[in-house]
Amino acid sequence: MDSNKRPETMERITTPELAQAFIDEQVKLVQEQVKDGKVLLALSGGVDSSVVAALLIKAIGKNLVCVHVNHGFLRKGEPEQVIQVFQKELGANLVYVDAVDRFLDKVAGISDPEQKRHIIGEEFIKVFDEEAAKLEGIHFLAQGTIYPDILESEKGIKAHHNVGGLPEEMEMELVEPVKLLYKDEVRVVGKQLGLPESMVERQPFPGPGLAVRTPGAITRDRLEAVRESDAILREEFAKAGLAGKVWQYFTIVPDFKTTGIKDGERSFAWPAVIRAVNTRDAMSATIEEIPYDLLKKITERITHEVPGINRVLMDLTPKPTGTIEWE
Ligand code: XMP
Fold it and tell me: How far is Cα 70 from Cα 92, in angstroms, rounded to an integer?
């Protein structure tokens, strides 16, 4: 039987009971596969890798080595949450790699979007490779591959996101416990494993992270403006009950400045752009209508609380013609 094909008889995991049955089964299977071997996992803090981490901690405890690479383009609070949940609460064997300066140096002065993505992807592999080389006796590599990844790479729609990131020459046996699950099932399993709601219900977030929301050549101050404005947007959407309803929402800080007034003085600063879209499959997207009062409040907060920002704009472009991300 093709182990990458979901059996037609497999029931959709929609309840805690079904999730528990899946967890029990996978814990056994993983234990049989790796025995007392060590398993390496790149833990981004996204839904899929987080669920795999929690599942493997249950199955093999300290024999799972999680590597969390902070490339500097994560959202506010994300690296802290990974450490809190996995190291402090779940007792994971976690290697935290602060590679922020390294990545920022690499992309300094690079304004071409594809080149930027390429550099970040390549550097990520290098950092992960270096960490793996420091560890001895690891024969297994765990990945948060999910079923849509398999279907999409089969159809040639996109390179396998999760696999694509990691070096092939590592020659490790793969451990992919959620590869036959759809995203909604991964979330149900994550909840059953006790992961926090904020982790399990996260909106999609691109691998290169905030780098693609800092169009053009990235500077630290503009990157911080993206991170802070995004944090305010997320906080206000959550307070207004929109967090689970809008598919994806974030800010972009483009590389141009306009004149304004801040604290009674002339300011020459960037705008922050709000993007809030709804979609089923990210192939096309519509614009979410956000209540005007909320937009006013977000504008007030971003312009007053975020250094370097003096205007807030809204991107009203559906996909197509826009893509969801700006780069
Ligand atoms: P676009 O911008 O192509 O985005 O309309 C569609 C969806 O994909 C996400 N995205 C990425 N996800 N790695 C990822 O894992 C990436 O490099 C990447 N680029 C875009 C984007 O956030 C949106 O949800």
Answer: 17
Which candidate, 207, 251, 231, 199, places its Cα nearest to that of 103? 207
The pTM score is: 0.93
Output the DSSP codes for 260-323.
EEETTEEEEEEEEEEEEEE-SSSSSBEEPPPPHHHHHHHHHHHHHHSTTEEEEEE----BTTS-
Ligand 1 center from residue 190 Cα (angstroms):
22
Contact 73, 207 (CB under 8 A): no
Q: Which helix (H) or strand (E) holds 177?
A: none
Question: What is the Cα 160 distance to its own chain's centre?
Answer: 15
Listed residue (205, 260, 206, 250) closest to 229, CA to CA: 250
- Ligand 1 centroid to Cα of residue 31, in Å, is 34
pLDDT tens column, 181-239: 999 999 999 999 999 999 999 999 999 999 999 999 999 999 999 999 999 999 999 99
Q: What is the position in ligand 1's atom list of the atom closest to the CA of 325?
A: 2
